[in-house]
Amino acid sequence: MQETKLSKFTSSLFVLPYFIVFVLFLLIPLIYGTYISFHDWDLLGSTHRFVGFSNYAKLFDPSTYFYSVFMNGLWNTAKFVVFSVPILIIGGLLLALLLQHLPDKVKGIFRTIFFISYCISVSVIAVLWLWLLDTNSGLFNHLLSKIGAAPIQWLTEMPYAWISIVAATVWWTVGFNMIIYINALNEVPNELYEAGSVDGATPWQKFWNITLPSIRPVMVFTIVTSTIASFNIYGQPYLMTRGGPGTSTKVLLMEIVDQAFVQRQLGIASAMAILMALIMIVISIIQFRLTRNSEGSVA
């Protein structure tokens, strides 16, 4: 009995650092942010008047300025999710399938090449793509000039601004999904493919009837996590387009930061952040349910 208690105490010590980080950097800010969202909280003011759900009501009242700010940011974020997530999912899977068919001697090299961009910070990614997309001296417009085409305003005109942000994001993060898919593909039993060959299945039939059902739970995971990550986009549009042209690429996190630290309306900004967090919670619930159903259907 004493050894069991000691074992539980030792296990708790290993969990304690993560629990402390969770409380300090997630739980307390979440509770405090919720508290602020119920107040008229000027960042530089000394008094903070309790207003209840007034801040939330303003975000859904079409007659208010905050409604247009919130909906514009939410709409732009949703567009980025729709543009980027399918490419991240399909592109990651295609890269993983490509690597599966390469000789073993070069698999590690190409896996590193495709994944290494994921290890670079967003600021470095933005600087790199700003250089590539510069109107006057960028590499892309230089190549266009070689074939006699007119230069493109990649970062100041639509739809090129969105194309540029999505391209930079996909190049930066698709390697993460690729690694996850490679691990999932390695878990598919070779006996299933051998049985398919005996039955005369084509490569497409093997992919559709063996590969996809076998990696379905992993696909659900990558779809949901990619959606959540894309919903939290901030660095790419902030550093590359500053939300322009106009507010066409000003996403929800940019609007929240602007309301909090430029307009000093911390109560409204906190309400917007809480609503964003609720959307993430809903997505997470869908993730768990889809994963559970997918595992049941595969089994």
Automatic annotation (TrEMBL):
Keywords associated with the record: Cell membrane, Membrane, Transmembrane, Transmembrane helix, Transport
Membrane topology per record: Multi-pass membrane protein
- Family assignment? Belongs to the binding-protein-dependent transport system permease family.
Species annotation: Fictibacillus terranigra
Residue limits of the ABC transmembrane type-1 domain?
74-287
Q: Which Gene3D superfamilies match?
A: MetI-like (1.10.3720.10)
Q: Where in the cell is it found?
A: Cell membrane
Q: Which InterPro entries match?
A: ABC_transporter_permease, MetI-like, MetI-like_sf
Chief location category: membrane
Keyword Transmembrane attributed: yes
Q: Which domain of life is it from?
A: Bacteria
Segments traversing the membrane: 12-32, 80-100, 112-132, 160-182, 266-286
Its name, as the record gives it, is Sugar ABC transporter permease
Q: Name one matching Pfam family.
A: BPD_transp_1
- UniProt KW DNA repair keyword: no
